[in-house]
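Progress narrative, work stream C.
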Amino acid sequence: MADQVLERRNVRPILQGPITQILPKRLELEKVIELYKSVGRRNAEYFQWIHSVYSWVCLPCVGFECRKALGEDKTKMMIFDVLLDDLADNYDTRNQALMEEFLQIPWQDSRTKNQYLDVGNKIWEDFIGSVVSYPRFRDFEKVFYFDL
């Protein structure tokens, strides 16, 4: 029954190629922050602070070899979420139509070309390209997508 509820209906392919072809081109966290600054309105210093927290807060079962990437990926997902949040309730960037398209980024390619959506797409693709390489991603994939 859970499989029926969590059935994935996404149009966008999660990966464009094998993981080994995607991972070498990860964006540096600084590049992701610069992308945010190009469209976002919040103080980007917050992202460095939250990254310092995410870099050491993790479950004890996470191997040391995964912690750096995990801290960066959690920060990148948070930046993606802030972009979405800004479309919902930031006075300067609030935009219902753009927010609805942004919400579709994990599921399908955007119909509209827009710098804000382009930034969201770049951050999402970098994030998901890394996350799918985690040792047990396939075990928890349905839960991961359910929570989006």
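Work stream C, second folded protein:
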Amino acid sequence: MPRLVVTRSIEIAAPVEKVLPLIRDFREWPRWSPWLVAEPETQLQFADDGKYYRWEGTVTGTGEVRMTEETDRELSMDLTFIKPFPAKNRTGFQWEATAEGTRVTWSMEGSLPFFMFFMVKSMEAYVGGDFMRGLMMLKDCAEWGRVPSRVEFLGVQSFTGADYVGRRQRCAIAEIGPNASEDARVLNAWVASRNLKVTGSPLMICERWDMVRGQCEYTMAVQVDPGPDPLPEGFFQGELPPCRTYDVRHTGAYRHLANAWTSGVMHSRAGRFKMKRGIAPFESYENDPREVAEEETITVIHFPAR
């Protein structure tokens, strides 16, 4: 059986005694679970002592997890997936006090069905991404008592198309936030200097996303008619065609936006919609993060759908 090993860590600015109750009691997990955001209506069953729970959903699948051993530095669990395919894994958390608060590590060891041997690297990347999303939400729960992230599923919509001027970039996935912000600043400054009329929301088109290598390619775009003058170096004109899209709206901090992206992908895999090839998924922004609190930032992710 192909072996699967995943480990991710995070620093939390809170003492161990504030972090541990969020981990060692499964009844607290819905507050920061990286999977339940994709299907909040998932049916959950908890043991009275909070040491076991079972989940069942059409998007999240079916499975159960049980705490098996706890020391002063580590918590071990047995994780069993039942649907969409059976698998058993060992997972757990390690923690240590630091000068900043607590360092938490989430790890998993297990195996994949033999017929999925070619997916080991991609599964390690995907599960690692899920673990990191969960740890980031755990961090907010421990530090602030809440997670500034809300995901809403708007279903299939009609996108009327868009003409845009954009800048296309390649970068590490971890750097996309600051890089895209700088692209938006440059584009907005150009629009203002030309006194151009904006015809729609800013867009970011996800041209390529490689979780295994941690690299991405994207286009940051503004919807404008640029007129007859030549575009600055590095700018280009493009078009998104009219199409049906499955829309997912995220309200909250941009650092948690992957909750919405991952949830949309999970909905597609669960058969709630089928992705359309040939048109890249894209984000649109319903307000300006410079003008609202981070928990009020609204981003809509549009998945082209058949």
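Helices lie at 16-24, 120-144, 176-194, 258-269. No further action is required on this item.
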